[in-house]
């Protein structure tokens, strides 16, 4: 993808997401082995960890350094909890994780700071990601840790970075540190959690990326220990599955019932003739599974009143589209990333599919199930 438009932005984004994955892997390992104070609750009772803040600071600092401090970044986290006096020990951990990661920038082909960042510089890097996006100009969109619950449980999570220009998603990069590289790795992961030896051998963890209009999506294994990122030498193209028979199709959905109506999805699945049990996976790894051809369908029906955020979808949606799939709301309309931080006007839910045939059937089944559930 060299010499193409946005190649500089894509190049930086892929490298930065590799750095972020390496940071997350270290924090997740510590979190699981020490059970320490690295997890906090936000005002809405959702979780935030040292990794969420550290990745946001690192990505913000690196993007500004490589692309200019004027760039606009829309991201999930803020510094409200982190800058309170009770959070001083967490802030110290964040500063240490950020500096540890930035010091490794040369391994990823990037340049870090000359001196370690202070706590206030780290807080500044996090809080400058306060753009609201919108229909004009370029905006980076970051979910530093998507699937924080999966992350805390030692399971699947993703680092999601996208770039929107003129309201359209142009670049999508998804780091999936616990997604095995080999085919059907996610289904096997579900049965047998990743062991640490697999993790360091390069068999587990990848970064997926794409650029709008390229009609290609790529997967690059993560690097470990003191390896250098040789990118794009070992990147492999990925594409959606060719299965269109519902009886053979696999469908993904969120793990938590609070994030998606499992029983409504089960009704739709039955109506379409899906036979397999749902593959419940934390995070945007669900989009990655469609883009890699490991699953055919992702359905998500949030409770009414919940507004989906752009950072939970932008990178994953572009990956599925460029890998050959289809993504719309439950009414069949494309998702609109031009309206600010929310997917405004979303009709009921999100349906991502490997192909048009399955997609049409699902939209029809949603319509029928909706009618009957509202009788
Ligand atoms: N009520 C409700 N409905 C729908 N979605 C919600 C809701 N509350 C939160 N969120 C967002 O869901 C993100 C996690 O989605 P997942 O697909 O990973 O869900 S699950 O953990 O597998 O159940 C999660 O992303 P992260 O916070 O980055 O983990 C939230 O942005
Ligand atoms: Mg969150
Ligand atoms: Mg998220
Ligand atoms: Mg998040």
From TrEMBL:
<dbReference type="InterPro" id="IPR000760">
    <property type="entry name" value="Inositol_monophosphatase-like"/>
</dbReference>
<keyword id="KW-0460">Magnesium</keyword>
<keyword id="KW-0378">Hydrolase</keyword>
<feature type="binding site">
    <location>
        <position position="143"/>
    </location>
    <ligand>
        <name>Mg(2+)</name>
    </ligand>
</feature>
<dbReference type="InterPro" id="IPR051090">
    <property type="entry name" value="Inositol_monoP_superfamily"/>
</dbReference>
<dbReference type="Pfam" id="PF00459">
    <property type="entry name" value="Inositol_P"/>
</dbReference>
<dbReference type="InterPro" id="IPR020583">
    <property type="entry name" value="Inositol_monoP_metal-BS"/>
</dbReference>
<dbReference type="InterPro" id="IPR020550">
    <property type="entry name" value="Inositol_monophosphatase_CS"/>
</dbReference>
<feature type="binding site">
    <location>
        <position position="312"/>
    </location>
    <ligand>
        <name>Mg(2+)</name>
    </ligand>
</feature>
<comment type="similarity">
    <text>Belongs to the inositol monophosphatase superfamily.</text>
</comment>
<feature type="binding site">
    <location>
        <position position="76"/>
    </location>
    <ligand>
        <name>Mg(2+)</name>
    </ligand>
</feature>
<dbReference type="GO" id="GO:0000103">
    <property type="term" value="P:sulfate assimilation"/>
</dbReference>
<keyword id="KW-0479">Metal-binding</keyword>
<protein>
    <recommendedName>
        <fullName>3'(2'),5'-bisphosphate nucleotidase</fullName>
        <ecNumber>3.1.3.7</ecNumber>
    </recommendedName>
</protein>
<dbReference type="GO" id="GO:0046872">
    <property type="term" value="F:metal ion binding"/>
</dbReference>
<dbReference type="GO" id="GO:0043647">
    <property type="term" value="P:inositol phosphate metabolic process"/>
</dbReference>
<feature type="binding site">
    <location>
        <position position="146"/>
    </location>
    <ligand>
        <name>Mg(2+)</name>
    </ligand>
</feature>
<dbReference type="GO" id="GO:0046854">
    <property type="term" value="P:phosphatidylinositol phosphate biosynthetic process"/>
</dbReference>
<dbReference type="InterPro" id="IPR006239">
    <property type="entry name" value="DPNP"/>
</dbReference>
<comment type="function">
    <text>Converts adenosine 3'-phosphate 5'-phosphosulfate (PAPS) to adenosine 5'-phosphosulfate (APS) and 3'(2')-phosphoadenosine 5'-phosphate (PAP) to AMP.</text>
</comment>
<dbReference type="GO" id="GO:0008441">
    <property type="term" value="F:3'(2'),5'-bisphosphate nucleotidase activity"/>
</dbReference>
């Amino acid at each position: 993808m060299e010499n193409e438009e946005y190649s500089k932005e894509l190049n930086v984004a892929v490298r930065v997401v590799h750095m972020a994955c390496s940071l997350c892997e270290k924090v997740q390992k510590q979190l699981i082995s020490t059970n320490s104070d690295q997890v906090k609750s936000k005002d809405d009772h959702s979780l935030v960890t040292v990794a969420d803040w550290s990745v946001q600071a690192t990505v913000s600092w690196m993007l500004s350094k490589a692309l200019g401090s004027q760039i606009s970044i829309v991201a999930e986290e803020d510094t409200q909890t982190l800058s309170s006096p009770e959070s001083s020990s967490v802030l110290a951990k964040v500063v240490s994780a950020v500096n540890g990661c930035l010091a490794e920038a040369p391994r990823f082909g990037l340049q870090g700071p000359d001196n370690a960042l202070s706590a206030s510089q780290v807080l500044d890097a996090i809080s400058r990601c306060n753009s609201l996006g919108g229909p004009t100009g370029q905006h980076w969109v970051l979910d530093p840790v998507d699937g924080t619950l999966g992350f805390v449980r030692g399971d699947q999570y993703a680092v999601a970075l996208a770039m929107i220009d003129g309201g359209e998603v142009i670049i999508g990069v998804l780091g999936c540190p616990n997604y095995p590289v080999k085919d059907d790795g996610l289904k096997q992961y579900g049965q047998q959690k990743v062991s640490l030896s697999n993790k360091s051998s390069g068999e587990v963890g990848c970064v997926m990326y794409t650029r709008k209009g390229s009609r290609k999506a790529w997967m690059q294994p993560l690097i470990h220990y003191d390896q250098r990122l040789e990118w794009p030498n070992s990147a492999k193209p990925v594409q959606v599955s060719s299965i269109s028979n519902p009886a053979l199709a696999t469908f993904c959905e969120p793990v938590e019932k609070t994030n998606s109506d499992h029983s409504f999805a089960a009704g739709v699945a039955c109506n379409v003739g899906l036979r397999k049990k749902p593959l419940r996976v934390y995070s945007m790894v669900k989009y990655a599974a469609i883009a890699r051809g490991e699953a055919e369908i992702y359905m998500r029906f949030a409770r009414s009143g919940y507004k989906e955020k752009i950072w939970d979808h932008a990178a994953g949606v572009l990956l599925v589209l460029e890998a050959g799939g289809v993504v719309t709301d439950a009414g069949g309309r494309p998702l609109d990333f031009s309206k600010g931080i929310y997917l405004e006007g979303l009709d009921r839910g999100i349906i991502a599919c490997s192909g048009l045939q399955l997609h049409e059937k699902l939209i029809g089944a949603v319509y029928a199930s909706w009618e009957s559930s509202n009788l």
